[in-house]
């Protein structure tokens, strides 16, 4: 089976050349997952075609994987590193999914690397998917609408007026009994029994594994395994009306299990929203505060002199990452940006955060300072994926980069507004984070260390002192 290495942002034309197979390229387009505006949008791993010489395993790396950091040329040693890095990203995705993060990995059951017969490998992989889905989401059920005189639920006024006798008090109709409606979980449908049976049979394959030994099985009568094949049309009918990604992939898994078709054609595990992964991982390592969201805006309309009406608007703002200590607070913003061009000739950089992003981050620091007061130390920084030339650049004097988790590569200031505005040199540090190391820390539940925060605050405070001296000299 061939292995192909591509990366996010690569043009569809380059992917086509790497695949060198029009049929496989057509399949990628048909999946409506890999490409957005004719460039790769997917990060992860995919098995396209049967698990034999006719198929291909595609490893799609994040856009920070340039040819010097994650070389894409045919080199067995480097390819093993690429595969390991992709598998680590998949571990991160699954960890985020278990934590109910709002990041959906576009995934179906992934190809297993267990050293067993080919059909058994696929069966075990499918069983793992079914059990993991069950652990994370429980049994599939339908919502059942209930209407009656029970005490819970919203009042159904139409049904109340039609079915209940009111007590008339003058011009007022008083209903002593109300019809109410509510939704309840309906586990009586055949699809739920099919799901429960597949879970039970999958568990039999995995129960001796240390990862699945404690899973509690659903308490339902199990359908005979040989009878499940006749129920494939039931699963397909649900698949036609499924809306959520979870339901779609679950029904695909159940169809494969019922058919005993364990060689599923396309096995995909990854995401098309890797910027959310970058934010979540950095928040897990560089942050320790969960409450970071503002209230909704308030609109005040004048109704007279010294009188007004107030209305709550919609939409909040969220500071990416905050690390709070007794005497200092760190404010971070994860930016999943890779520069398209850095030119010493004309002093230009393209593809990095815009002025609006920098101004917003300076505003976030102002909000945090108002909350915690002026008597403690602050720092403000962007967390960017490491790029080789800057990750390996000389460190600022007096700093150290403990275990190479990150490099403090420089800082950025916002552009001034209007020709008469005084220069605002409030710095926002640029910290380039080593992706492999930050993923490792995230998976191990490890936070940034006090020594590492000392480095960041030390550089930031020196910058502030330098700008203060400069301003005093100009004055």
Notable features of this structure?
alpha+beta; five-stranded mixed β-sheet; 13 helices; 20 strands
Would you kindly provide a brief summary of this structure?
The protein is α+β, with helices and mostly antiparallel strands and 475 residues long.
Describe the overall structure.
The protein is α+β, with helices and mostly antiparallel strands and 475 residues long. The chain has 4 domains: 1-107 and 267-272, no CATH class; 109-139 and 196-209 and 221-263, no CATH class; 142-185, no CATH class; 276-474, no CATH class. The chain has 13 helices and 20 strands. It has helices spanning 12-19, 22-30, 76-98, 118-137, 157-163, 190-206, 232-241, 245-259, 274-286, 355-372, 388-391, 435-444, 450-474, and strands at residues 2-7, 35-36, 39-40, 43-48, 56-61, 142-148, 154-155, 167-169, 172-174, 180-186, 266-271, 298-304, 307-312, 321-324, 328-334, 341-343, 348-350, 377-385, 406-412, 428-433. Strands 14-15-18-20-19 form a 5-stranded mixed β-sheet. Strands 1-5-4-11 form a 4-stranded mixed β-sheet, with helices on both faces. Strand 16 (341-343) and strand 17 (348-350) form a beta hairpin. Helix 9 (274-286) packs across helix 12 (435-444). The radius of gyration is 28 Å and the shape is globular. Mean pLDDT is 78; it is low at 100-121 and 388-402.
